[in-house]
Amino acid sequence: MATVIKDAEVVEIELMKTEQKSQQDYAQSVQDATNSIEADRSSILTKTGELVENKAALSETEKEQLLNQEELDKLNELLKAHHAECDYVMKYFDIRQEAWQEEMDAIKDAKAILSGADFGN
Hints:
By secondary structure, this protein is an all-alpha fold.
């Protein structure tokens, strides 16, 4: 019977050690979970702040993009206007050049007549 009691006491000690180890493991798991939750909360707060900053930057960028688009539209209209003017000049350049040359010839003839030249007789 003493052996059975001694064996029971050894088993009891081993069970107590196992229980203590289990309680320590559980406490460590709870502490790890708490630390992880706190880290996640901190990360959420940080990322929420970054999200707000990024949304503000996005809004500012979109505003600037709209202003740039307006400026680009104005410049495109100006380009179209200049292009139309250039097309007109290019289209009628030869005609205007010919008319200018005829006018210059007429002025030379007029100067010659006024200087006493006789063309027709």
